[in-house]
């Protein structure tokens, strides 16, 4: 059997489609967004952490709604911080 090579449509030199300015958490993706209280209530199921961990990660957050992937990134950054 012969195998065919498939060319990738995206160029490796192009910036990612969702390249927001550093520090910005907004996205233009059509993925569903959830409120803080919805993510807090479902944090163990969606994020794999207890609600208090998500609450700590979201301190100072100004966004009204977040996507799950953005919330996971916040939690990962929060858990990776050094304790002072």
Name its key features:
mainly alpha; 5% strand; disordered N terminus; two-stranded antiparallel sheet; 84 residues
Can you offer a commentary on this structure?
A two-stranded antiparallel sheet has the order 1-2. By secondary structure, the chain is mainly α. The chain contains 4 helices and 2 strands.
Would you summarize the structure shown here?
This protein is mainly α. The protein has helices at 36-41, 43-46, 51-57, 68-80, and strands at 34-35, 65-66.
Secondary structure: elements and pairs:
Elements: E1 34-35, H1 36-41, H2 43-46, H3 51-57, E2 65-66, H4 68-80
What's the story with the biggest beta sheet? Answer: 2 strands, antiparallel
Structural class: mainly alpha
Cα end-to-end separation: 60 Å
Task: Count up the helices.
Answer: 4
